[in-house]
Amino acid sequence: MKNHFPWEHPEPIWRKDTTVQECSNLTEDTSAEIVIVGGGITGITTAYLLTKENKDVVLLEGSQLLNGTTGHTTAKITAQHDLIYDELIQHFGKEKASLYYQANDEALRFVRGTASQNQIDCNMETEDACIYAQTDEYKDKLDKEYAAYQEIGIPCEYKDDVPFEAEVKKALYMKDQSRFHPLKYLSFMVDEILKNGGRIYEHTVAIDIEEEPQLSVRTKQGHKVACDKIISCSHFPFCDKLGFYFARMYAERSYVVAIEPKKPLTAGMYLSVDEPVRSIRKAAYDGEEVLLISGESHRTGEGVDTSFHYRALEEFAAETFGIKNKVAQWSAQDLFTLDKVPYIGKATKNNENILIATGYKKWGMTSGTVAALLLRDLATGKNNRYEKLFTPSRFQADPSLKKFLSNNFNVASHLIEGKLELVGTRPESLEKGQGDIVEINGKRAGAYKDEKGKLHIVDTTCTHMGCEVDWNSAEHTWDCPCHGSRFSINGEVIEGPAKNPLRCIKMDEDTAQPVDDKDQEEKPDTPEPV
């Protein structure tokens, strides 16, 4: 197996062996029945379903198709979403907990059925999924989860071991789950959307919604797509006035290493429930079997030196399986809702024509498919028994209120701490390939020195709500700890909810002082009232 991956540019294995059809950007105003924003599993599956029903669909993707969270997934297709069912029963009751399982199980069957019926060669494998506990504390939690499985009627086995070297107290297996190659599966759908008359535009950033004189999506390039309905599938809702979702979710980053192991894994997909969490699954790459080892989650912008997380996963992989060869490493960002259930449905309670899907908490392959099936029904006026469960307008006093207060206290603390942080580093003291918070004329800034010695300096104030971004050494990005926005070394937006780039600070090469360039300034985004 060849090692094609320079570690300073992490890239998932899915994007190395699959070519997704490229689409042009939108260059003029247009119209459609339905506009879908976001080219991941939710947006593509929704567009696929709607074009099969002869709907006139336009899909807008701000970057490249399948280059976001979907392209960086570990691609487990399972209704086993960590420890969740006991908690759902406690907070929502048995009926809704059962509906959550049924929705995700139906999504799993849909993905497998679509792949089988259309003979999509996407490395689909059926295996059990397993969560396991290594301490007495988490064994007690796993006991409760097993009881919840029995109460709901989830096919399972409760065992004492896993088929690899690990000290395990108990292991809970959910039967008949799957794993696959997500880009091979979704590339088929992209081709079908275009064959069915759908239109897809890449590198077309949607930034706002206008409701008068006609409902339309406005793009960063200044074009409009008039429509009857809008469906936001853009990971983070692309427009703040959709319902202030930035205050109702938080972002986490997690990490993946792909290795060729010395000790092969026999079968199954595994997730430890103790900290630190470790996820394990097999995959095929370059004619060989590899293992994907993932974990090391932390809130975006709040991790230690992010290179540490990759090293920790490699150490676990070496101790547990041995490493013949390291194949790849990458990271992903996921959004968590207040009650751990995705928001899928009407963006605001009284508007039938603007729909959203977000907050999949690391389980996007099933949750994104659940969302697509539900969004198709809502967009075409059909009844769907899962609508109430996933409705974004829900609010459970427990745990939603506690999470809401905690999340927004966290944002407030970052707003204050970032502004007060004292820094003494000078940009010229950075080593090549190093980024850090620096001081320029007594003010906080962010600097990165590239391999040629050129400095890239930005204002570290996030353009979304004014929090201070921090340096991510593993991905060479500036990450916001408040709402998960991420920016490149030159300040361009990589991931929302921010729409405007960080302000670049130009330096005079002779005086090493910043150049006064007021035209560079970008005002923070200002969400409109709902």
Give structural notes.
The protein is of the alpha+beta class and 530 residues long. The protein has a domain at 421-520: Rieske [2Fe-2S] iron-sulphur domain (Rieske Iron-sulfur Protein). 25% of the residues lie in helices and 27% in strands. It has helices spanning 41-52, 85-92, 94-117, 136-152, 182-195, 307-320, 364-379, 387-390, 397-420; strands at residues 30-31, 34-37, 57-60, 76-77, 125-133, 156-159, 170-179, 199-201, 206-210, 216-219, 224-226, 229-232, 249-261, 269-272, 278-285, 288-299, 323-337, 343-346, 354-358, 434-440, 443-449, 455-458, 470-472, 477-479, 486-487, 493-495. The strands form five sheets. Strands 4, 5, 6, 7, 13, 14, 15, 16 and 17 form a nine-stranded mixed beta sheet that branches. It has a six-stranded mixed beta sheet with strand order 8-3-2-12-19-18, covered by helices on one side. The protein has a four-stranded mixed beta sheet with strand order 1-11-10-9, with no helix packed on it. The radius of gyration is 23 Å and the shape is globular. The chain starts with 29 loop residues before the first strand and ends in a 35-residue tail after the last strand. Mean pLDDT is 87; it is low at 1-8, 519-524 and 526-530.
